[in-house]
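Exam review. A common question shows you a sequence with its structure tokens and asks you to describe the fold in words. Practice with the pair below. Do the first one on your own.
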Amino acid sequence: MVSPLSAWPWASLGAYKYLLYGPLVWTAVQAWREQGGPPTGSWCFHLLVLLALRSLTFQLWFSYGNMLFFTRRRRVVRDGVDFQQIDAEWDWDNLVIMQTLLGAMATSSALFPAITDLRVWDPRGWALALLIHVAFSEPAFRWAHKALHQGPLFSEYHSKHHSSPVTQPLTAAYGTPLESLVLTLAMGAPIAGAFLAGAGSVSLVYGHIFVFDYLRCMGYSNVEVISHKTFQAFPFLRYLIYTPTYLSLHHQEKDCNFCLFMPLFDALGGTVHPKSWELQKEVDQGKNDRVPDFVFLAHVVDVVSSMHVPFAFRACSSLPWATHLVLLPLWPIAFCMMVFQVFCSKTFTVSFYYLRGRFHQTWTIPRYSFQYFIPPMKEGINHQIELAILRADKMGVKVLSLAALNKNEALNGGGTLFVSKHPNLRVRVVHGNTLTAAVILNEIPSNVKEVFLTGATSKLGRAIALYLCRKKIRVLMLTLSSERFLKIQREAPAEFQQYLVQVTKYHAAKTCKTWLVGKWLSPREQRWAPPGTHFHQFVVPPVIEFRRDCTYGKLAAMRLPKDVQGLGSCEYTMERGVVHACHAGGVVHCLEGWEHHEVGAIDVDRIDVVWKAALKHGLSPP
């Protein structure tokens, strides 16, 4: 049997729970129509404005906490927020829904004054609210919080909140209805007291709720925001305001640091963790930071998908990328960010995870796919990549893998430019194309005797053609350049050269049902494929799935091992836990401890070696 107030009554509604706001919205809309403008005299209208401001407060703190380029050196807990925690906290806003509905009930009561009867500002109310907060909310919350850590109360109610291993701003609102009622009482008592004393004001309602949410989000942000020097200069502040380190210690130890915002009450109760301030100083000084073992150097795909980064929207980044209509109004902001990055930005850290004790990060070059094809921008892009490699080398990174267009042959020879220019690099530069080729080749059914290959003279196309011809598979290589074709054909052993055939038109493949697509196909070009054709792809962006009588493969990818830790964002359109093959290639290079660079042309003899190494370490096809 479910314990009372341990589950949300609208849990089964899913996204339809937001219909609970319907009566408030309807009342506010009606008032707006009657007044011909914003109904500032309606409590329903102000509750909706508060709802928007509160949601924005949580969102901005969430974004800040995940901006690793600002915060990575001051993170309290090193671990990342994984998919399991993200899913558990998905309905974090149940607290906000409940408090909004309770606010609507309270303001509709005859005991509550009409908003038109209130002052905008009343300093008496602010002073009284502060007094009630210190005298009642703080000690009452600490007492209730400590009680929630006892026996059945913890197992039935509070353990859910503590199941989140890494705190983040959304964790501040995550819990059961009972916990939310305790928080509501702590937040609402000062406001109610001021109103009962006749000193309430509109600014008090807005201000007190904002400060309450702000401090809750700050404490749960997992990022130190108050300098330890401030506490050294003013020691008494340690007892007036808590820190993210202070709260993280509570989440880890569970038997200390119970206060709401003021450690003074923990000090009076003897429940302050003895290392609270020492650890806060260490975190603030960056001593909790760590050098990554592996870096995946990515780039932005396009303006809209730039909002897929972990510090934008959790609902986007934790799922494979898809265009959402709700994001379209934000397109102008994303476009302005693109322009800003061209002139002012440098490579920044986007995400991280841990794999078998190794620290893996994703860095992003602040350039968009289309910019790689603008000749005047190529030199600047290469400079950005070079600076990232040199930075990684200076830091002590072991392996750096180049993503997609960052290893473009026409741009830098698949990374050869940087290795040749800096022969003493300690960091190993990897393009990951060897594993990409292996993934594509292992997708081809064993009974296939003929394939049609576009992008045939690219790095990947060359390697795939040379590998398949050794298996006595006939490869129709689409290219207009006989010179490039003959160069590749001569690389094959003499007895296998006959299996490489140059074709110049798509109709040459009208009977071939296995297409290896390394160059973008238009709908017209796809029409030449016979029904039942499967399109294996290694082209970015993927081709449009135009043919309903054919099947389309995804971009070459690998699923990370099951023991990956702290992974909480999807890599572009990939499923959870799946990364592009070039990313996985760098991971294998790091796990194997290989000392060579993997740049330039693909070594066909190493394709099977890399594939077997990937499988040995637990990576698998998605």
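Now try the second one, then compare your answer with the model answer below.
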Amino acid sequence: MKGGTVQISWHESKPVLTLDFHPLSATLATAGADFDIKFWQIKPAGSPKKLPVVSYLSNLYYHSSAVNVIRFSSSGELLASGADGGDLIIWKLHSTDAGQTWKVLKMLRSHHKDILDLQWSTDATYIISGSVDNCCIIWDVNKGTNLQTLDAHAHYVQGVAWDPLGKYVTSLSSDRTCRIYMNKPHKSKGIEKINYVCQQVISKADQPLLKNSKETKFHLFHDETLPSFFRRLAWSPDGSFLLVPAGSYKISTASESVNAAYIFSRKDLSRPAIQLPCASKAVVAVRFCPIFFKLRGTHSAGLFKLPYRIIFAVATLNSLYIYDTESTSPIAVLAGLHYAAITDITWSSDAHYLALSSQDGFCSLVEFENDELGSPYSLSGKVSNEDGKSTVQTTNDTVTVPTEDVSAVLAESKKMESEEKADDMVIEASGNIDAVVTESGETITQEKDEMIKSTGNLADFRKNEAAEKAIDMAIEATGNVEGVIADSRKKEAEEKTDGMVIETTGSIGAAELDRRKAEQEDKTEKQPANLDSDGKQKEAKEKTEILQSSLDGIKSGPQLFSPKSTPISNKPAKKRITPIAIDP
């Protein structure tokens, strides 16, 4: 297995919000804040140390706003795209003499605000979409009509999923609830029509997570402050269980909250059967591998009763976990790939590639070798799972949790978080910075203090600090972040012109400013009277004026960063003065 970020211009450096592999080929579709949908061909690099080769194929342009979700139908003949403003477009693949082209088939308009997620039914007859207007809509694709609106949520619907067996649809909202709807068809004029009725509203846990903890109700999901537009949930390909992101729970009342993804057994959809603890960042998307694999028999105490292995990916804001149904711990963890939040993940049809997109404007690819994930499992017929047969081991009195792994995950999470902060720093060329190479091939700084003490490297240090803060911010518009960084660089250039070396990392108090000015004035007054010329006296006076002006600017100007970072000068650049070195 190898993976990394592909350094190409995916969407003109704007956030990539969604992606999906074509079900019959290695064609990857991406979309984002530049309003376009682009197609890419993925090929092996031919070298064990190189990333797959990504080649641009074509693009689709019809949307007039950011595209938040794209999904191919199971046959690959149709593509659905949902965007800001509530537009949902169905594209159809046409074969011509010049090749294959995608054309708009239908425009589905019923949502009043941004569409954040959508999912096809297995037979590509229906689509469910979730929107910022707090509603889910079930569409008839052939007629292009709104069959049913599900408007029970009190906040944004950020994730939807369609049961592959056709019995349920599910939605996940920032109102901290997951709703499961059951299809109860009714006949109208002799024609049977779908009718989804809410069966479960999952919001709080009624049972303790651990046997030794006190029984209390607690919220299962993050609230609307989760810094992501998406909570993409999914059903397993056989419909045996539901995987839900954005989980948050406490091991005990005194402990910190643990981010998690929940697994719901089809037999009991009222509460989680398994919690999968993840890193320090919230889970925003999950996706199942489309291929089943043979059991390896290495883990006898598995949590699932399946004759095959199912592999799935869980994406947090800054990391990726790969699990299978035969073990409780992840089979792979990838972190530090992006500088901004991960937005979507997808598997190729042959399970050879796993791709993820990010708001930093890039996509990453993970490539698996042949049979690295296991040997494919041949299904004799259509996969089905009756509701009466549970494939997840559960008990009646408590939620099944791999508790033996929770403490290890928390410890690994803290370690990973500290490593990511170092790995994510952008280190520019500097002769006096000691650097080391991490296992991932990235360089990290070894001596921050040396950089702070050097005037020439002060801008680099602040740039790195700004980059680190941008990672943890809820990035809603890349332009805002770039504007902050650009403004920071402009002010840093002004500070360099002033010729001032700031060694303190805290705010400079008024008393300290007055003391420094007084010291400089004393130095000026103590200059020898018999200077070589009047020019030197004038030079000393200019030094005093420059330093006083710089200190006054820092004292009165606003600070761009937190109090822990180096103060930024906000002195208006009315007149540019030639920098003069200050004598010690």
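Model answer, second protein: The chain has a mean pLDDT of 76. The CA atoms of residues 242 and 264 lie 5 Å apart. Full marks require stating both points clearly.
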